[in-house]
Amino acid sequence: MAATQSIAKRTSTQSNFVQWLSRLPWWLLFLILAGIILLYQFLTNELYSVILSKLTQGIVTTIFVTLVAFTCAIILGLIAGLGRVSRNRLIFNLATLYVQVIRGLPMLVQIFYVAFVLTPAFFTVLNAIGMALIPVLGETNFMLTSNTQDVTLLARAMIALALAYGGFEAETFRAGIESIGRGQMEAARSLGMSYVQAMRYVILPQAIRRVLPPLGNDFIAMLKDSSLVSVLGVRDITQEARLYVSASFRYPETYNTLAFMYLTMTIILSLGVKWFENRMGKNGRGS
Amino acid sequence: MGAVPSAKQPMIVIKNLVKQFGRIDAVNGVSLRVEQGKVLVIIGPSGSGKSTVLRCINHLEVPTSGEIWVDGIRLTHNHKDINAIRAEVGMVFQQFNLFPHLTALENIMLAQKVVRKRNRDESERVARRQLERVGIPEKADNYPDQLSGGQQQRVAIARALAMNPKVMLFDEPTSALDPEMIKEVLDVMQELAKEGMTMVVVTHEMGFARNAADEIIFMDKGLIVEQNSPQEFFSDPREERTRAFLNQILR
């Protein structure tokens, strides 16, 4: 009797242990292991440490591009998102046009387009206006003297990314706003608030809380897509890697390092987003 | 437009109101008037258009045709006028519609600040007084999800009252409540009626209608079937349709 009981106990602790094993985040352990191997390489292997220090020169650009472009994208997205829920047909159509064009074009194509079509076109128009205004502003007004070269490729790349992500964030904000029940708008309006006041004080505070987790994920996606700016020669970590490879032909070492750097950043960020989501879930007012 | 202040002027006048949703006629030509300080209760089966009439009074629904006058001002499509009238017309919803991201106190303060332009101190003072009035001053700092349905509805009433409305509209205020919470909300409403507030109430609470109403309107299929005093309405209704409805719900 006692023996069978102890066996049952042992098998149950055994199966507990197996369950515990199977629940471990193996994917994370695997990544950490790979990371440790790479870290060891960086410390001991001279080639790896050279590559790491080369790529690190681009890290500021990568982070800068991501932060600036994402901030602009949020502002653009909020404006376009409000346009998408507007009852004003003109505003609605403009916002929808923007969103549909953005969503229908590959991001890489958008970057080329902004950098080499829209920016020159903008200055052509600006110069024409400057030309027309010579009688008023004189021959050296800034609209005549400025040209495409004044806008760096870095700036053009950030504008392109901001426009591209603005289109996605517009739909995120639209979904967030539409997820707030009709009654909230009615209650606010019934108290005499204007549409704008109701949006600002009642709808948006709730909607933004709801879209924070998706925005966090989009921030991670932006960090990855910032690598696209390398096609314009902007020296982010991807461009630094490409430059190093083209001179050294050290493909595995260079791209191992590049992947390591992106993964480190994205995994840390995604853990942060997850933590934030959990915290929101615990006291999620407005959800 | 110009509002003429006069003591005898009716608070609400509706002339031949029609509201269609697509091809469906929700309201088929309703006319009524509510004098100052009176309580009008509208009852009727669901889909009879009673909520729609109420929602037209502060333009949450835009009438298809007909005229609505509130305190001598005609409701048109002019946004400024509509916002001005809404500030004078308090509305209480079936689903409370409190703002979940704000505490009870902040719920009551928000519109005072942005619509009435009262400063923080004054709107807080008014908010606390209204919470006192509806009997839950201790819940000031609670969020809506920490309150029972009855408490939420009382906060919603306080929120509307804080705007010093001239009329209060109630759209089935107790229909979403558990039975044990209905009384606390009805008590607040009865108190309001006693204080002389002009009220239009859509409800299924016959007890409230009997006790608090000055007049009862029975609606069916978008039309007013019977308009009567509460005594006669319940003891000796004029219309066959009313009798059938009352038999059904009073049993």
Given as residue ranges, the uncertain stretches of chain B (5+ residues, pLDDT < 50) are: none
H-E string of chain B: EEEHEEHEHHHEHEHEEHH
Number of helices of chain B: 9
Count, helices of chain A? 13
CATH class of the domain at 61-229 in chain A: Mainly Alpha
Descriptive keywords:
heterodimer; A: 287 residues; mainly alpha; MetI-like fold; 13 helices; 0% strand; flat; B: 251 residues; alpha/beta; six-stranded mixed β-sheet; four-stranded antiparallel β-sheet; 9 helices; 10 strands; 38% helix
Detailed description of the structure:
The complex is a heterodimer of chains A (287) and B (251). The longest helix of chain A has 32 residues, at 251-282. Chain A contains 13 helices and no strands. Chain A is flat. Chain A has a domain at 61-229: MetI-like fold. Chain A is an all-alpha fold and 287 residues long. Chain B has 251 residues and is an alpha/beta fold. Helix content of chain B is 38%, strand content 24%. Chain B contains 9 helices and 10 strands. Chain B has helices at 50-57, 79-88, 104-114, 120-133, 149-161, 179-194, 206-212, 230-235, 240-250, and strands at 12-21, 24-34, 39-43, 65-70, 73-74, 89-92, 167-171, 198-202, 215-220, 223-228. In chain B, strands 6-7-8-3-9-10 form a 6-stranded mixed beta sheet, with helices on both faces. In chain B, a hairpin with a 2-residue loop joins strand 1 and strand 2 (24-34). In chain B, helix 3 packs across helix 4 (120-133). The longest helix of chain B has 16 residues, at 179-194. The termini of chain B are far apart. Classes of the chains: A mainly alpha (287), B alpha/beta (251).
